[in-house]
Amino acid sequence: MTDLNWLAVTPEIVLLGMACLVALLDLFVTCPQRRPTYYLTLASLAAVAGLHLCALDDGSSVYAMQKMVVTDAMGHLLSLCATLAVAASLVYAQVYAGPRDMLKGELFTLSLFALLGISIMIIGNNFLSIYLGLELMSLSLYALVALRRDHAQSTEAAMKYFVLGALASGFLLYGLSMMYGATGSLDIGEVYKATLTGQINKQVLAFGLVFIVSGLAFKLGVVPFHMWVPDVYQGAPTAVTLLVAGAPKLAAFAITIRLLVEGLINLATDWQQMLMILAVASMTIGNLAAIAQTNLKRMLAYSGIAQLGFMLLGFVPSVVAGNTVSAGNGYGSALFYVLTYVLTTLGTFGLIMVLSRPGFESEQISDLSGLAKRNPMLAGVMAVFMFSLAGIPPTVGFYAKLAVLQALITTNSGLLLQISILAVLLSLVGAFYYLRVVKVMYFDEPAQGAPAVDASGARLLLSVNALAVLALGILPSGLMSLCAKAITQSLAG
């Protein structure tokens, strides 16, 4: 169904309007805690989330703005989760940002603009709209990382992120330009039709595909394009680290689906091999490098590289003899995996912010020593998150890994069976450093002079976050079927 009016992009229009309103309102706010700005931002995010939730029930795909964008079930689900992730990040950041002179209007305004970029990436149906969303998100995140201008480590992280992010954007843009040169169109649907003809220069397509996959790998932060991830995670203020580690991963997943699956599915044999190599390399290097880390944020960065490598395995099952079941299962399980990974990531970095105090960044693994004696509730919550990332039942991380492995094994491919076994073995390696955090919390003595933990502020959200990780692990079928349905409806549209 083609719709040329503005109704299809109502959530994005509301988000843009509220971001401008928040920026203007903050000029007149005198409260040091920025409460009016904070509450208006959360209200705006709640309204946008409500719009996506209402539209999620309608399974149709609507093309709007001259087919520049498409609103479908997958887009609404990812946009809803991205909006909730940004809202949760700001709730966690409220306590953390104040003492560090970061509680300014820029934190809220840039977060909203980053979310707008994410939303445009998710609904993009044209190379131009996807790239526009990518740059809006990236520029907002660069500025957020450098928000503490007097902090040398944050400034260094921002510079690294900017330089490598610009390189990634260049890779992606170069690949898209080659695809345009080969197919004569910027529209993803037209690109798909052009690849069906078989009359396109295969060399140009191959080169363009390599650059596109490289650009996507940069944005996902997988090996060998992962060099920015540990430095940015460690150097950025934890509140901004969470904004970088959460919702943008959903946008990267969305453009991977839009470009590779919806636009270049006829080249699947080529890009699936690339993603397979990226996935295995990311799981291997991410898990092995994480073992050596003593900084908690840096460990979580390498952990994230390994987790997203595991998620990429969901893109490997292909359409066999016209049967799309294996591929659909793979994409659905990958969507489930990335959603649950972001949910767990929100909690882990949120807890680091709760434990941090003025003059004390709770960034070292040793800073968690004896946490179970100082605050059993926070130790229990962190243990749930670590178990989920390690893939231990009954947490959602176990089911997410199981779903991806199931999608691989049911293809009856010998190669994918071997990769599944390797993925399980590497997950066992990863369990070591996750369980080490639990050991430090429960069996080590509290460090001398360790600050008393006050869990006020984000305690409720942390509890809800941990309960969601447990509940989705025990009853995963609802979200799993929603992911499968969203993928199926989007690809059918």
What does this structure look like?
- It is a single chain.
- This protein is mainly α and 493 residues long.
- It is 74% helix and 1% strand.
- It folds into two domains: 1-160 and 227-256; 267-493, no CATH class.
- It is built from 20 helices and two strands.
- The longest helix has 32 residues, at 152-183.
- The N and C termini lie close together (9 Å).
> Can you count the beta strands?
2
Could you say which structural class the secondary elements and strand pairing correspond to?
Answer: mainly alpha
Q: What's the end-to-end separation, in Å?
A: 9 Å
- Regions with pLDDT < 50 over 5+ consecutive residues? none
Radius of gyration: 22 Å
What is the spatial order of strands in the main beta sheet? 1-2
H-E string = HHEEHHHHHHHHHHHHHHHHHH
Roughly how much helix do the residues carry, as a percent range? over 70%
The whole-number mean of residue pLDDT values reads 87
Provide a quick synopsis of the model.
This protein has 493 residues and is mostly helical.
Outline the secondary-structure elements.
Elements: H1 10-26, H2 35-56, E1 62-64, E2 69-71, H3 73-97, H4 105-123, H5 127-145, H6 152-183, H7 188-197, H8 202-220, H9 228-235, H10 238-245, H11 247-263, H12 268-291, H13 296-312, H14 325-355, H15 371-374, H16 376-390, H17 396-409, H18 414-443, H19 459-474, H20 477-492
Helix pairs in contact: 1-2, 1-4, 2-3, 2-4, 3-4, 3-10, 3-11, 3-14, 3-20, 4-5, 4-11, 5-6, 6-8, 6-9, 7-11, 8-11, 8-12, 9-10, 9-13, 10-14, 11-14, 12-13, 12-18, 13-14, 14-16, 14-17, 14-19, 14-20, 16-18, 16-19, 17-19
